[in-house]
Amino acid sequence: MGNVALGKKVEEEWKNASEVTNGIINGYTAGTGFVHTNWPDYLTIDLESICKLYVIRFLLWDRLGNSNKRDKRKYKYRLLTSEDHNEWQVHFDTGKDGFNGWQEFEFNPPVSARYVRIHAMWNSANVEYHIVEVEAHDSPATSLIAECVLKRVINNSIDKNEIEVGEPFPLTSKVFSDLNKIEELVNDNDYIKPEKFLRIINDLRVKFRDMTLIEQSMDSIRREIIRPVTEEMEEASKLGKYSKYGFIVGLIGFIVGLVGGIMTIITLIVDLNS
């Protein structure tokens, strides 16, 4: 078929959301031809059925739609896919780096997915995140005519992709969703001067960005400490392995791991406030 994301809907409320899957990748300007929202947020595309994806690629705004001079801004993001909207594979995380322009990921072997998600985390230029187009190909994709800034081959038989269960970072998402609603109310009210309120909202966004780091640490603790211990105890319980003494030892190990996780969170909070 080719680009199975073409014409598919975005689940979240990004402005001009339909433009990110309309197939138009040229002629975008500083004000048109892309979707945008305040970061951090998710952009999730429902492909409507499970597909074998060979390539996912997307275009982060770079000014090259109507100019030959690339913008200096950098975007940070994570790329995820899911079959069931519950268990998500994290295929790529920009980490401390940032990019704009075309980002292309080739999967070898193809990845099975119904949902494609970009976790839009940061833009060096302002509080908004801008994406021109997202493509998901169920067959080898034709080469881009434009420059591809980042190109990676994801070998699913070798690479150990991080797995997230449920909606990642729900607290951060809820806070920023509420801030966006407040901003809309302020902009729609003709009886107050919006500048002061919008300045306060932007200050809150900056401060609440750190919640993402905290939730990432909590999710890591859950995956690496709490979940494995819990699964081991459940499995041993089914097999009748635990004597009373063994159960106590396992419980102590669980508590020690939990305390270590709490200390990690406390340390992170102290670092963020210092």
What does this structure look like?
The chain has 274 residues and is an alpha+beta fold. Helices cover 34% and strands 30% of the residues. The protein is built from four helices and eight strands; from the N terminus they run ββββββββαααα. Strands 1, 2, 3, 4, 5, 6, 7 and 8 form an eight-stranded mixed sheet that branches. Strand 3 (75-82) and strand 4 (87-93) form a beta hairpin. Helix 3 runs antiparallel to helix 4 (244-273). It is globular.
- The level of helicity is 25-40%
Major pleated sheet: 8 strands, mixed
Strand content: 25-35%
Shape: globular
CATH class category of the largest domain: Mainly Beta
- For the record, the CATH architecture of the largest domain stands as Sandwich
Provide the residue-averaged pLDDT.
81
The CATH superfamily of the largest domain appears as Galactose-binding domain-like
SS class: alpha+beta
Unreliable sequence segments:
none
**Overall number of domains:** 2
Strand elements, count? 8
Order of helices and strands: EEEEEEEEHHHH
CA radius of gyration: 21 Å
How are the secondary structure elements laid out?
Layout: E1 35-38, E2 41-60, E3 75-82, E4 87-93, E5 101-123, E6 128-137, E7 148-154, E8 162-165, H1 170-188, H2 194-208, H3 210-239, H4 244-273
Parallel strand pairs: 5-7
Antiparallel strand pairs: 1-6, 2-5, 2-6, 3-4, 3-5, 4-8
Helix pairs in contact: 1-2, 3-4
Report a brief summary of the structure.
This protein is of the alpha+beta class and 274 residues long. It has helices at residues 170-188, 194-208, 210-239, 244-273; strands at residues 35-38, 41-60, 75-82, 87-93, 101-123, 128-137, 148-154, 162-165.
